[in-house]
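Dear H.,

Thanks for agreeing to be a second pair of eyes. The structure we're designing against is below in token form, covering all 438 positions.
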């Protein structure tokens, strides 16, 4: 569990945002084709809860923070990392951790960045976390300045101090400082819309590599919030061709992130067709992380072409079951547009050795064809799969199968007695949703 908590926390800062995107039908789930992207924020303090549960600390107890502070001295690196992220989610309640977190800024990159994030989250008008980050941002040590820039992006007060500091970091001679400043500015995008957009657009025009990708993300969200035309997509398409696989992977992630802010099925972001073609091309990248990021990004679009469907059919043969699952998910998202993949999906849904791949492929077939046999196959997976998470996904995929109540309702009622609590809960909520349909 500790490793999971640490990875989840790292995703939060690497992505620069603690929110994911999800599809929500405007009509309450009746599937009339009018859908919009909505922001889904993970529960506040989820990383704190995960880590505290792992180490046997009750976050509601008065000694929780002191016990986590002691863990900052643990010889185990993952324990120290998890404690930092957990302390950050205590916010001002963890003020007593500030001195030790400040000393942790000088540790290796991952620990130093985690300490910086925690300081930013703990910072208030009345404690010393912000002055510590500001001092580090002016250090002679470039890695320390980079960590400070990252931490400043988590400070939620004193924008008149924080924004100028981040803009100075953006002009730093060190690229890693500039990149983290761009990420920090993205984190603060709700307070920066009209204040720094012109300066960031000028900086973007001069940038390259990873900095260009990160600034494209920051400028892109600011353009969206300012109701301006999204002009950064060509930069990200160019980033997909960069010689650095880290840049290519990040460019794909950002394309998915920005496209998630647009109403799907009603209007597309500018250059959407070119972006989708470039992401499909990236599915053939030699780097696995690039391929995975491109699949993630494609899951936000319904613009897949016939060529894209053919490429995804090949991806369904990938040796990595996670990749195969992602490919089936993209096909599911595109519904009838992906009808050319039906024969391949049938084979995968029935015979793939991985349970999750089979369930996702069956769900894709349902979205493409809406045939009873696919509802029945998903119902079988719900009752027979060994992995409780796969059973959870099978139950969740039934939420719009109101036309097949005779098949899915008996299976969901049986799942109310599942050995896993989360499966029982999703079965109950899915049944309630189906019962709301006439």
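And this is the sequence the design step returned. I haven't edited it by hand at all.
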């Amino acid at each position: 569990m500790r490793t999971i908590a640490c990875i989840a926390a790292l995703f939060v800062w690497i992505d620069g945002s603690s929110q994911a995107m999800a599809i929500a039908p405007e009509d309450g789930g009746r599937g009339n084709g009018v859908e919009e992207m909505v922001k889904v924020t993970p529960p506040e303090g989820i990383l704190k809860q995960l880590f505290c549960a792992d180490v046997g600390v009750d976050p509601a107890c008065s000694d929780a923070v002191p016990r986590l502070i002691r863990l900052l001295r643990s010889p185990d690196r993952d324990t120290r990392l998890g404690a930092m992220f957990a302390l950050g989610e205590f916010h001002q309640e963890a003020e007593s951790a500030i001195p030790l977190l400040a000393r942790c800024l000088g540790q290796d990159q991952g620990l130093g960045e985690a300490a910086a994030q925690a300081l930013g989250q703990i910072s208030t008008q009345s404690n010393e976390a912000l002055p510590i980050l500001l001092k580090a941002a002016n250090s002679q040590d470039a890695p320390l300045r980079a960590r400070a820039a990252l931490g400043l992006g988590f400070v939620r007060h004193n924008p008149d101090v924080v924004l100028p500091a981040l803009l100075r970091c953006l002009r730093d001679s060190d690229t890693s400082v500039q990149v983290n400043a761009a990420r920090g500015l993205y984190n603060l995008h709700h307070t920066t819309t009209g204040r720094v957009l012109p300066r960031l657009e000028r900086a973007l025009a001069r940038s390259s590599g990873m900095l260009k990708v990160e600034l494209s993300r920051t400028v892109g969200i600011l353009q969206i919030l300012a109701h301006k035309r999204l002009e950064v997509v060509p930069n990200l398409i160019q980033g997909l061709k960069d010689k650095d696989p880290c840049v290519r992977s990040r460019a794909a992630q950002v394309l998915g992130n920005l496209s998630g802010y647009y109403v799907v099925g009603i209007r597309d972001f500018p250059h959407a067709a070119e972006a989708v073609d470039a992401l499909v091309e990236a599915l053939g990248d030699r780097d696995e992380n690039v391929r995975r990021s491109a699949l993630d990004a494609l899951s936000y679009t319904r613009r897949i072409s016939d060529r894209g469907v053919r490429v995804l059919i090949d991806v369904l043969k990938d040796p990595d079951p996670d990749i195969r699952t992602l490919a089936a998910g993209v096909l599911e998202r595109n519904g009838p547009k992906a009808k050319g993949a039906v024969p391949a999906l049938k084979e995968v849904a029935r015979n793939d050795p991985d349970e999750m791949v089979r369930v996702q492929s069956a769900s894709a077939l349902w979205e493409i064809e809406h045939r009873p046999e696919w509802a029945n196959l998903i119902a079988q997976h719900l009752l027979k799969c060994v992995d409780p998470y796969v059973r959870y996904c099978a139950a969740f995929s039934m939420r719009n199968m109101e036309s097949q109540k005779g098949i899915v309702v008996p299976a969901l009622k049986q799942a109310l007695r599942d050995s896993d609590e989360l499966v029982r809960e999703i079965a109950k909520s899915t049944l309630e949703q189906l019962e709301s349909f006439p």
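Two observations from my side: The mean pLDDT is 85. The first helix runs from residue 2 to 15.

Warmly,
E.
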